[in-house]
Specification:
363 residues, two-stranded antiparallel ribbon, 13 helices, 2% strand, binds iron/sulfur cluster
């Protein structure tokens, strides 16, 4: 169950903001709040997923600590957001995983998967420390094993995420004044893909009271679009293999490699930048449990990309087999943590932005 004190805190903060309304131009949270007189738990979840944690409303607030009202909208909404991820996740028993993340747990999981793969490859008689003719990945891990393993994990991940986001959508729609249509879906996607509301009053993000820069936006875009390109690369490679019978490894100029290389560069530059920005970010903006959630996801994205790029460059050498297994260990760790980590924030945000579009609020 959701702690009552967290709901009460959210209701208190929104009641004060609804009376004040000084921040209504900053982002969709405030116009959406103004549509409501009372705030049920699902309303707070919706508003929390509209918040990009830019910080602007904290630094503008005359009721922020040390004022006795203690209003800190980004922190309160971050706490509610994290709690909503835990409550909607499936299976519900795994909700506690959202607070267990750290760089250490991410690395331990990836290493554990890699060790299991090394053991399986060794038992299978795969040659791991000598060049493999034609840099054939499937001589190390058979194609059928790869498809069965990642297909099963991918299916579970897709089901878990669909159930979680579906529950969030269902609950936030209960009091919906108007149904979302295709135009709202497109607008929500556009706003999410462009980070339109990251800092509505200007081109820059706030990470500190005195400091604004566009780098949080840039690094987020590099990370997200890098991820999309890598996904596209894998999809094209799967089509090459299963439809045309063209087997990996592919030439450096082929579409899967070009897409994967561009995506890989984005997934190195973006996470490194986000990691550096986190060091400078005001801790007052975030809630307990968020640091590990952010950092474990960033590290898994970064190291999945680094090991993938290393595999691409060194695929004709003696280390190809070992690098492949390490890379697959990181990919698997990234995959299994998708429904229980920071990845879900993008899907909840799209759902909230679609609902926001359906509410037809002018801003
Ligand atoms: S965050 Fe502070 S200044 Fe902004 S609307 Fe709320 S109470 Fe007013
Ligand atoms: S932190 Fe930024 S995005 Fe979140 S409510 Fe405040 S102004 Fe809006």
């Amino acid at each position: 169950m959701r702690p009552l004190e967290l709901v009460r805190e959210g209701q208190h903060v929104m009641a004060v903001c609804n009376a004040c309304r000084y921040c209504e131009q900053y982002c969709p949270v405030f116009p959406a709040m103004e549509q409501r007189l009372t705030f049920a738990a699902a309303d707070l979840d919706y508003l929390a997923s509209l918040c990009h944690n830019c910080g602007e409303c904290l630094y503008s607030c005359q009721f922020a600590p040390p004022h006795e009202f203690g209003i800190n909208v980004p922190r309160t909404l971050a706490a509610i957001r994290l709690r909503s991820y835990e409550e909607y996740c499936w299976p519900r028993a795994l909700g506690g995983m959202f607070r267990q993340h750290s760089i250490g747990t991410a690395l331990a999981l990836a290493v554990a998967f890699s060790v299991v793969m090394f053991a399986a490859a060794w038992l299978n008689g795969s040659r791991l420390l000598e060049p493999v003719a034609g840099a054939d990945f499937y001589a190390v891990v058979p194609h059928g094993v790869m498809v069965a393993l990642f297909g099963a994990v991918g299916l579970f991940v897709a089901i878990a995420i669909a159930i979680g986001v579906g529950g969030f959508w269902r609950d936030t729609q209960r009091e919906a004044r108007s149904k979302a249509g295709a135009a709202d879906l497109l607008r929500g996607l556009r706003d999410a893909l462009t980070l339109r509301h990251l800092h509505t009053t200007g081109p820059d993000c706030t990470s500190n009271e005195e400091e604004r820069s566009p780098w949080r936006r840039y690094c987020h875009h590099a990370t997200f679009y890098g991820f999309v390109l890598c996904f596209a690369s894998t999809t094209v490679a799967a089509i090459y293999h299963s439809v045309f019978g063209w087997h990996a490894p592919y030439a450096y100029t082929s579409l899967p490699v070009v897409l994967g290389s561009a995506g890989g560069l984005g997934l190195v530059a973006g996470p490194l930048g986000l990691f550096a920005l986190r060091r400078k970010r005001d801790p007052a903006l975030t809630a307990a449990g968020y640091a590990g959630l952010d950092e474990s996801f960033i590290v898994l994205l970064l190291l999945t990309s680094v090991t993938g790029m290393a595999l691409l460059v060194l695929r004709d050498g003696a280390l190809m087999g070992a690098l492949l297994l390490v890379h697959l260990g990181f990919v698997l760790a990234l995959f299994v943590t998708l429904p229980y980590g920071k990845f879900v924030h993008g899907l909840y945000r799209v759902a909230a932005l679609v609902k926001y579009s359906a509410e037809k609020i002018k801003n």
